[in-house]
Structure formats: structure tokens, C-alpha cells
Fold this sequence. Notes:
By secondary structure, this protein is an all-alpha fold. The chain has two domains: 12-89, no CATH class; 91-143. It contains five helices and no strands. It has helices at residues 2-28, 30-50, 71-89, 91-112, 124-141.
Amino acid sequence: xxxxxxxxxxxxxxxxxxxxxxxxxxxxxxxxxxxxxxxxxxxxxxxxxxxxxxxxxxxxxxxxxxxxxxxxxxxxxxxxxxxxxxxxxxxxxxxxxxxxxxxxxxxxxxxxxxxxxxxxxxxxxxxxxxxxxxxxxxxxxxx
Length: 143
């Protein structure tokens, strides 16, 4: 149950982050804000590593698949696109579309076991859940 609460907290933080990034984008420009956000994030992660909170092994760097390092590139795209969508569509509308995109993609990743993950079989219930989410998104987005 704790892990689901933490996941919910991360969702709330994502909505706040997108809102703050969009606001910063209005002041600095969207690409400039994306850059600043990543500098602040990199600096924060570096501080956490320096104080000893990292428990990983840098020697395993070469053992990861090349595509595992695309997360940084995707992070830049995500921060930029979230800021753009929130500034144009509003927080609730953009977040609804974002969540639907996340869940739909997650079902595909699970079903095919992409990127070295164990496959999680697709079921009609999962498909029905995605359809219900899409219906809920449509209700939220319709005026």
C-alpha cells in the first residue's frame, strides 16, 4: 500500500512540476526553462550523491544497454512538452492527456516486456480499463 501512496505522490508532484515549468517557461522561454530545470535537477542529484545517498555502482555503467541512456533525452522532451501542453491547454486537461498516454504506453511495455522487463500479460480487463480511462478523459476534456 505504501508504494501506491508513493506513486500517487509522484503523480501529484508531476502535476506541480509541470505547472511550475510552464510558469518558468513564460518568464524565460520554454526551451530555456527546460534547460534550467535540468541544471537544477542535475545539481540536486549531484549533491545527493556527494552526501552519500547513492547506493549504486558506477562500474556497471558499461553493462547497461544503449537504450537505457535515452532516459535523459526523453526527460528533456517530457519537461518541454508538459510545459507546452499545460501553457496551452491548462493543468487538468494536459495532465489528463499525459496520464492517458502514460497508461496506454505502460500497457504496451508490460504486454511485450520491452526494454528487458518481464512481460505482464495483456488481459481484456486491462484493455477495458484503458478504454474506461479514455472515456473518463473524454468526459473531463469535453466542454
